[in-house]
Amino acid sequence: MEKTKQKSFLDHIMDGIGYMLPLVVAGGILMGIGYMLDNPSVNPAHYGYNNPLAKFFSTIGSKTFGFMLPVLSAGISYSIAGVATIPAALMAGAIVKDGTSGFLGALFVGFIAGYITILIQRTFRKIPDTLDGLRSLLLIPLISVMLVGLISLFAVEPIIGQINTMLNSLLKSMNGSSQILLGSILGGMESVDMGGPVNKTAYLFATSSLANGQYALMSAVLAGGIVPPYVTAFASTIFKNKFSKEERERGITNYIVGLAGITETGIPFLVSDPIRVMAACIPGSAIAGGLSIYLHCSVMAPFGGIFILPLNSNPLGFLISMITGIAVGTVILGLLKKPIEEK
Predict the structure, then answer these.
(1) What are the sequence ranges of the domains in the chain?
(2) φ and ψ at residue 340, rounded to 5 degrees
């Protein structure tokens, strides 16, 4: 119960995503390998399953990926109420997975399961300790599953399902220019706070699109996210007189860590000179995100940086997007930064 007081709604969501993300990464990469090993011309309707090896990777990948929403719900509820809430949250997550409410529904039922479990725990707290087994193994799981199931089926799924369907229809109806704009916005958001709430919001939006079978936005966000480490790395190497010795050393590290697309490595530069770093990295990331959409890039895996390049539908296009964004950001940062005199 102390967790509920200490953590914000965003904290609970990020905890849930922390549990979900390994499944999405593993499942997305495995499915991507399945597609790489297959030939769509054999049978386009069964792309990814046309030969035994491709079928193996696609099957275990899709099964792993399928746990995405139930685990997200369970992770959020566990962050709120602990182990007791997991049965109800997993059940509710399975309901929204099979329904139409998708990622949004999973968020809602995760919170609902957590707080309902807390209410039930408080209701039964006067039961003697000798009957603790009855309370924890029977009463709380049974009642929470029933209540959360009712709410999920008759409230969350119809209402959030309608909203989710509208959002998906809106995304699918977007023409080329509006999709590029969305990719640019999401890509630019990656550089605003480099791992903070704005960055995570863009990542969350792209991750939710994976659950709906839309992979282009994930590529745009990953392209935008890889820009800050390399903008700061190249700028500190090329314009040495504008960075301290410590910053130049960090820049060298960013060449390596940036391969994994870890945006947070740009934070020290952002903290020391926020205006100039943001003014350089945001346009670079926005260009990378927009170009990724324009060049029809898409990827199922939500993490991995350069290492998942072969899984992208257009690896060359992703590289072009990334390099262009980095080049623009590096030039801007080099022009904006003032020479420094080290003591």
Answers:
(1) 2-173, 176-336
(2) -120, 155
What is the rounded CA–CA span in Å between residue 182 and residue 50? 34
Contacts of 37 (CB under 8 A, 6+ apart): 51, 53, 54, 57
Higher pLDDT, 29 or 231: 231
Contact 116, 88 (CB under 8 A): yes
Residue with token string 């399961």: 113
Helices (H), 212-306: 216-225, 227-238, 245-257, 267-272, 274-294
Mean pLDDT of 294-300: 93
Collapsing DSSP to helix, strand or coil, 54 comes out as helix
Those residues with Cβ within 8 angstroms of residue 229's Cβ, 6 or more apart along the chain or in another chain: 254, 255, 257, 258, 261, 262, 263, 265, 266
Give the pLDDT band (50/70/90) at residue 287: very high
| DSSP one-letter code for 192 | H
Mean pLDDT of 161-173: 79
For Cα atoms 274, 280, 285, give the angle at the middle one, nearest 5 degrees. Answer: 110
Q: For the chain, what is the mean pLDDT?
A: 89
Distance of CA 94 to the CA centre of its chain: 20
150 φ, ψ to 5°? Answer: -60, -50
Question: 188 with 261: CB under 8 angstroms?
Answer: no
Among the listed residues 149, 169, 192, the one whose alpha carbon sits nearest the alpha carbon of residue 285: 192
Side chain identity at residue 179, one-letter code = Q
pLDDT tens profile 313-338: 999 999 999 999 999 999 999 999 99
- Cα–Cα distance measured from residue 74 to residue 15, given in angstroms and rounded to the nearest whole number: 10
d(CA 232, CA 68): 34
Instruction: Give Cβ neighbours of residue 177 (< 8 Å, ≥ 6 apart).
Output: none
Here the tokens at position 83 are 């182990």
